[in-house]
Design goal:
The complex is a heterodimer of chains A (503) and B (209). By secondary structure, chain A is of the alpha/beta class. Chain A is built from 16 helices and 16 strands. In chain A, helix 6 crosses helix 12. The two termini of chain A are 37 Å apart. In chain B, strand 9 and strand 10 form a beta hairpin. A two-stranded antiparallel ribbon of chain B has the order 1-12. In chain B, strands 2-3 form a two-stranded antiparallel ribbon. Helices cover 18% and strands 22% of the residues of chain B. The chains are: A alpha/beta (503), B alpha+beta (209). Chains A and B meet through helix 10 of A and helix 2, strand 2 and helix 5 of B. Chain B: InterPro entries: 4Fe4S_Fe-S-bd, 4Fe4S_Fe_S_CS, RnfB_subfamily. Chain B: Keywords: 4Fe-4S, Iron, Iron-sulfur, Metal-binding, Repeat. Chain B: Pfam families: Fer4_11 (PF13247).
């Protein structure tokens, strides 16, 4: 059996090739940018360059595409800058064409924006003879309704599924199912690394901004990352294999779209290695905001849609899959499963409060059988530097570390609804988080390994976690994308958050 | 305070605080221009709180109308500065208004949008450039002016009204939204005091100076 630690058959880290040149995802409109540099203040990798008061640029080679700059930018195109309303309308349409935004969107245009894919998707949806499949990330269902004026954190999985069917998708699946598979694979990988000698600590690999960050800033630590693909890519790979078998269609005839809270997911989906047997795992990614554009464009009355179910089997998920949307969620889901797989005993308490929280770094020790499992959770890449420096120095004795690039996990992703008032972000994040935990608490199945559709998937298709099929479809490799932080002469800011004690 | 207000709101004279010895001194938002970074967060916050009644929510995705704030960040050379109504005690805008659409309430100079005829007299009278005449939007749609059409295509023209800072009088409690939203603490609410003698206004408004 090939495992992640078997370097001869599965090199976890490869040198970047010339074909890996970075396509910019985040853009700053120089005709709008006033050079306030608030975007630079939230950038964890100092990728925003320029003088105060002058238009800024994004260094695509350093940018991790987390989109936090897009979230904070408040410089919008004002109609007063133009001579007449007609001229303002013409300039607005020109900007929207330049950004490849749908022409009938009414919201203000901000200086910082990300690459949009909606026009590409709507064009592809009209292509005949294909099975159109969509998957939705855990955090979309607690934020999408905000785009229609509903209170923060309004939970709408049923309406979202209904809306996606009305947009023309033949199968509405759920990334939460992919998250359940991730736990099976990643949890097994952790157990193997702990019992067979590393490399430890093992880092999660769900967050593409974090993976890119590690590739750019700490390439020598890439073999510490779990080799699992992210839940989106895992479900994408399963859609065109297991799903194609169940639907009796050819993978080539499947068009697979993912709705994500994240501006880096398109980059992840475009990575050359994210394909199985010549087919892209996921063909296109839309953000929460883009899905809202689409629903509005089609005149769908979202809030009055009936609640509909996700399709089976790749849309049936556990509560553990749901909590991937918040910081600490992957850790909590992994412990729920890892504890029971390792000890063969029931986890005494499902709600693991010690990994829930809002701090940039949280650490805990969990007694798992005879093992004192030391875990850490990082929310926001600016908090990762200190911890990774310790790993580099061989001073970090943690077993498992979850890293999410955005400040509160995926609920605060760069593609999530953008708020007009900065002060409402905390309120919004708390409401979205509470909604996700509530959705988990209301789930009948709350552990990935108890999800009957996961059990069926392994029985019918995958065999066992880290088995041959899993290794082929669900695991990947990472690329060194630079000499790393230590080798660079420039001073990388840690944004002043260095006062966390790790012991 | 109510007595002073009644006196100031005499229908026969709209000249704000004509009797300065017992006037309600205006409050207004003052900006430390040297610290402004030009982020326009104040403009966005102003628009956000004044649009809630029009059905616009917290997310920019709920916005389907142009952003029309009541504070304007302007650039002068290398510096930015937010400009908004100073709620003048003598309110030249009110003096210029031919339909008495501008009034003062508790030191806040307010425009009655319904009464305004969009004549721009107040815009010309304002010494700070703090007033704009803007299209009126309701529930995400522009309100059209009955009887007024474009000559070329007979399309209805938008109804317009004067718009300026009202210190978030009807939309928020405590600090005006722009003051709260400013990431650099550039904006500050200078609170007017009842019956303060004119010679002490500087201390009341600008305690740092």
């Amino acid at each position: 059996m090939s495992t992640t630690t078997d370097k001869s058959s599965s090199p976890p880290c490869m040198e970047a090739t010339d074909s890996d040149c970075t396509v910019p995802v985040i853009h700053i409109d120089p005709t709008l940018c006033t050079g306030c540099r608030r975007c630079a203040g939230v950038c964890p990798v100092d990728a925003i360059e320029g003088l105060p008061g002058e238009p800024q640029t994004v260094n695509a080679d350093r940018c991790v595409f987390c989109g936090q700059c897009v979230q904070i930018c408040s410089v919008y195109a004002s109609d007063w800058a133009d001579a007449s309303p007609q001229e303002a309308a013409i300039r607005r349409q020109a900007r929207m064409r330049e950004r490849d935004m749908p022409a009938d969107i009414g919201e203000p245009l901000f200086a910082a924006y990300y690459s949009y894919s909606l026009n590409k998707v709507t064009d592809m949806m009209t292509k005949p003879g294909q099975l159109r499949i969509v998957q939705c990330a855990p955090s979309i269902r607690v934020s999408l309704a905000e785009e229609f004026g509903m209170p923060f954190g309004t939970l709408t999985p049923g309406k979202m599924a209904a809306a996606l069917r009305r947009l023309g998708f033949d199968r509405v699946y759920d990334t939460n199912f992919g998250a359940d598979v991730t736990i099976m694979e990643e949890g097994t990988e952790l157990i193997r690394r702990v019992t067979e000698g590393g490399p430890l600590p093992m880092f999660t690999s769900c967050c593409p901004a974090w993976v890119r960050f590690a590739e750019i800033e700490y390439p020598d630590l890439l073999d510490h990352l779990s080799s699992c693909k992210s839940p989106m890519q895992i479900l994408g790979a399963l859609v065109k294999t297991y799903g194609a078998q169940l639907d009796e269609v050819k993978p080539a005839n499947i068009y697979s779209v993912a709705i994500m809270p994240c501006t880096c997911k398109q980059f992840e989906c475009d990575r050359p290695e994210m394909e199985s047997d010549g087919y892209r795992d996921v063909d296109e990614v839309l953000t929460t905001r883009e899905l809202a554009y689409w629903i509005k464009q089609r005149g769908i009355d979202f809030m009055n849609l009936p609640d509909e179910e996700f399709d089976s089997p790749l849309g049936k998920y556990s509560g553990a899959g749901t909590i991937f949307g918040v910081t600490g969620g992957v850790m909590e889901a992994a412990i729920r499963t890892g504890y029971e797989l390792l000890t063969n005993e029931k986890l005494p308490k499902l709600q693991l409060d010690f990994v829930r929280g809002e701090e940039g770094i949280r650490v805990a020790e969990v007694q798992v059988g005879e093992l004192q499992l030391k875990v850490a959770v990082v929310a926001g890449l600016q908090h990762a530097y200190q911890l990774l420096d310790r790993v580099q120095a061989g001073e970090c004795d943690y077993h498992f570390i979850e890293v999410m690039g955005c400040p509160a996990g995926c609920i605060s992703g760069g593609g999530q609804p953008k708020l007009m008032l900065e002060k409402q972000k905390i309120e919004a994040y708390r409401a979205r988080k509470s909604s996700i935990y509530g959705h988990d608490a209301a789930s009948q199945v709350r552990k990935s390994h108890e999800n009957p559709f996961i059990i069926k998937l392994y029985d019918e298709f995958l065999g066992e976690p880290l088995g041959h099929v899993s290794h082929h479809l669900l695991h990947t490799t990472f690329h060194k994308r630079g000499p790393g932080r230590q080798s660079r002469n420039s001073d990388v800011s840690t944004n002043g958050n260095n006062d966390y004690s790790l012991h | 305070m109510s007595g002073a207000r009644n006196m100031l709101y005499r229908p026969t004279s709209r000249m704000g605080a004509a009797d300065r010895t017992s006037a309600v001194a205006s409050s207004f938002v003052v900006a430390d221009g040297g610290q402004c970074i030009g982020c326009k967060a104040c403009e966005l916050a102003c628009f956000a709180v004044h649009s809630q009644a029009g059905g616009i929510g917290a997310s920019v995705g709920t916005v389907s109308v142009p952003v029309v704030p009541k504070v304007y960040v302007v650039r002068a050379g290398d510096a930015y500065v937010p400009v908004q109504c100073r709620h003048c005690e003598n309110a030249p805008c009110a003096h210029a208004c031919p339909v008495q659409a501008i009034r003062q309430e508790d030191g806040v100079v307010m425009i009655d949008e319904e009464r305004c005829i969009g004549c721009t007299s107040c815009v010309l009278a304002c010494p700070f450039g703090a007033i704009e005449v803007t299209p009126v939007y309701r529930a995400g749609h522009v309100v059209t002016q009955s009887g007024l059409t474009r000559h070329a295509n007979r399309a209805a023209l938008p109804r317009t009204a004067a718009s300026k800072c009202d210190l978030c009088a009807e939309t928020a409690d405590g600090q005006p939204a722009c003051v709260e939203a400013c990431p650099n603490q550039v904006l500050r609410l200078a609170k007017g005091a009842v019956d303060s003698p004119p010679e002490r206004r500087r201390e009341v408004f600008f305690p740092r100076l």
